TrEMBL record:
Name recorded for this polypeptide: G-protein coupled receptors family 1 profile domain-containing protein
PROSITE patterns in the cross-refs: G_PROTEIN_RECEP_F1_2
One function term, GO molecular function aspect: G protein-coupled receptor activity
Broad class of the protein's primary localization: membrane
Amino acid sequence: MAGEIIEVLDKKIYYTIAAVYILTMLTTIITNSIVILTFYKVRCLLTPSSLPILSLAIADLVLAVTVMPFGIVANANRIWLVSDFGCHWYAYGHTVVGFSSILHHGVIAVEAARKIVRGIRNAGARRRGMITTIVVVWAVVLVWGTMPLIGWSSYGPEGSGAVCSINWKSTDPTDVSFVMITFVLFLFIPVIIIMACYTAISYDLRRMARIAEKQWGRKAQMTIARVLAKKKSMWTGLIMFVAIFFVWMPYAIISFLSVIGTPEKIPPLAFALAAMFAKTSTFVNPLICFFWYHKFRDGTKRIYRNSKRMASLQKAWTTSCNEAACEIHLRTNSYPYHSPDFRQVR
């Protein structure tokens, strides 16, 4: 693949894809850096439920910095400049982060169900359990992503030919088995678990509302606050999952059709657009965190206000120090203009 000019699509389309990738990369870096900084500065936000969000933010940031530039250069030049290693690295990075994304949302759904339905309160145990779960998730996807590198399926050019991914179009039984198991493990099973969790949460919220209404009345403040707080927690996770599912679904459908159907009938442009749309998933979670999760938004705003206040104090301190230093300089280092000898000469 290295050194070959790619002519699958029109030159302008490659340039457009490269421009979109640049925008995606910059947006991903900015938004996920804000998420990481907010969690670092406002530690009270770093609950067991938010640890998967932080984990994904770190992964998306690393992906944007270390992997996305390869795709930008390849599309802009219509040539893969960094040998087969670059192809494998690009495909491996996107595969691992893509698989981890759906599993992380499964973890978020299960944690929400345990917290709301079962009412688990031990924050320390939940935190330790969540950290262990996240480590297991990363171990699974890192190992699974290496399978094409050691002979079970392979990584190669996709769609437009400019970037690489899993070899979805292969008809070899070994490659097909890998792809089908991948869909089962990283799409079908997680989606079923996620939907089951949010269905259980929804049912429990309705049950809780009925019980609270009997005890305190429909319009009692305790009834409203208790139900709304849990409903808000459920909707945050559900909206994140739906958004990720939405941006990945076109790519998943086209990839699945390539396996079970006739891949040559799928236009390269359709593959390229679906892949480009899927890559926007790297900044979807931060945007949802900011616009939907008011505590996170308040924390980010507080950091911004504090940074402006510190900048103002720094500026005032620097100005005052400069004025003091100037006065000291005039008093001690202005010879001969302020010396007795100079005045005597005059």
